[in-house]
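S1.2 Input.
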Amino acid sequence: MSRNTVSAIILSLLVLGTLALVFNVQPVRRALSLSPATPHIAVLNFTTNSFDMFTHWIGTTFDEHVTIRSLDALWSLSNASTTLVCNGTLLAVTNVTFNRLWTGANMFDNTTSGILKLFVEAPSSIPSGDVEVASVTMTILNQGTVPPRPLYSFDESQRTLVNTTLYSNFTFIGLLPVITDAAANIMVYATPTLFPPYLSVDGGYTLGPGPVLGQLFNVTVSLNNVNGPIDHLIAVRYRLQYDNNTLQAVNATEGPYFEYFASLETGSLGTLFQNNILNDPTFGWNVNVSQALDPDATGMYNEPLLSGSGVIAIITFKVLYQPSSVGSVTTPLNITDQMATGLDNMVIQNLVTVPLDQPVDGNVTITRGDHDVAIINITSSKTVFCGGCLGSITVTAANLGISSETFNATVYASGTAISTFMNVTLNGGEFATLTTQWNTTGFAYDNYTISAYAEPVSGEINIGDNNCTGGFVFVAGQGDLTGGTPNALDFVPDGQVNIVDVSVVAKFFSQKVPPAPANCDVSGPTPGLPDGKIDITDVATVAKHFGQHYPYP
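S1.3 Output.
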């Protein structure tokens, strides 16, 4: 402001005072009626006033700005002082930076916890507009935990300015009027000692390297880390995004998690499960899923509510794309637009939002290999083979690659080779069923695990599917079929032949296999070789060895 302007203001005020004396009016009132707008003082925060429950905030710093707002230059402010009051158990003042506008003997005093006194003077130019007094760095000292604190509880601190004084360069004005603006409280939410609930796509999925175009496969979505007494969670909604150039969503069905807790909840009317497969302008192709526990007939929920982790949805996809040559493509399965709903407590039962942690996304990798042979299954005709007899074992071999392959496959009983299929030849994508007769002569009476292994072919990279382990097979004494467990139909030998063994065979007399158990078909026209039916030969074979004992390891 120019010297001429200042002189004009002073002259006007002097004239007003003289006229007031002549006409017997109040000069101060008339002078104030012509004064500029009253300035405000405020605490400004340009980041956040609210610190959420999912972060440990102790030691975190943030800046507050003590600011004189809407200051008119006509006030010609010369100095200012104010006191900032806060919750000293929650926040501490750790630094004060005065605005460069103030060039005098600026001072602050924070010796008393929760109280900061500020004084600034000698502005380098006439202050106007929004004028910062100082930037104050606060440090968070404390944060509660859940439990024992209730979920959504928080500590808070006011940011109150008191004892504010603003002085003008004009001695006849002196103390300026000021309005103190209220500031929103700082809130620091108590953090759960347990991790918050989160949604996940369970694992990565790999299909191939054999032909998989048009193949259906299932993806499971789980809800995890639910703390029932704290979260009171009753519903979730989410979208599972996918690339429709690679996959096609076919169907979504409810997993067992919600249904299990509905069965435990007293009076629950069950569950709600809704899904839509759609192309959304915001989220693209996705499966939109909503599911919830239903209350009882009165509209109230009863404990227990959801807790722990479990599968909430099973989504079926169809493969639309597979590389035409050797290679792979990975497509994401992303959870987005998620929301969970719970109850504030079990008495009033207001609906509240339950915060969810970041989801764990999944992916699908579709491969195409040039060379890849595999064993995809191995089974035995029975689980009890008599010592010295023949037992049938069937292996399913496959060529999951593109090129025609010739390879050998060996069958093992607990690591001991019992048969080898030589020169198995399959074109790309072909399967073969291979059957061998295991001669158990020389094998001790014991429990054996059967497996099969395809020798890798030249250029094969994926050898993880070359080995396949099947179930167990007992080699037992002739006639010893059961007795190892209370249920005779478990067919666990006990080292002796008694009435239980005879009875279990006689029970299925004259039946074919199946439905009769294959273990009861102990012989046929060729002794020791099953013939697919239970007749007098089988009963007589077991009865012949009645009373015998066989040594087990």
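S1.4 Remarks. The chain has five domains: 1-34, 39-192, 198-367, 373-476, 494-544.
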